[in-house]
Design brief:
Layout: E1 2-5, H1 7-23, H2 26-45, E2 51-52, E3 61-65, E4 72-79, E5 82-90
Parallel strand pairs: 1-5
Antiparallel strand pairs: 2-3, 3-4, 4-5
């Protein structure tokens, strides 16, 4: 399957890494990036691995935790023969607010 990282996903990656760099260290931010890459590879290999989220306003969104940073979630959706990487955020946020009801993939 083809992976498609949305602009919002890419911005989230930078925001999260910047935050971890400023609040913890460059090493922590780099470790987080490596954990993210591993999780994305796993999603590409086994797209159904993520949990379908019934609590989000848009249908079909799945989440997968980062292994070494389990508070962070990758939000993605399987669309035909492609996987859309939608967001990556800390799981303690108000998650439904990340996905407006009438918005489609970006």
């Amino acid at each position: 399957m083809k992976l498609l990282a949305t602009p919002r996903f890419i911005a989230d990656v930078e925001d999260c890494a910047e935050y971890l760099h400023s609040e913890a260290s460059g090493a922590v931010a780099e470790g987080w990036r490596q954990s993210l890459k591993q999780a994305v590879r796993l999603i590409a290999e086994v797209p159904e691995i993520g949990r379908v989220r019934q609590d989000l306003p848009q249908p079909g969104i799945r989440t997968l935790n980062l292994r070494k940073y389990p508070a962070y979630l990758i939000f993605y959706r399987i669309e035909g023969k492609r996987i859309e990487l939608l967001r990556v955020r800390h799981g303690m946020m108000h998650l439904p607010g990340l996905f407006p009801e009438n918005a489609e993939g970006e």
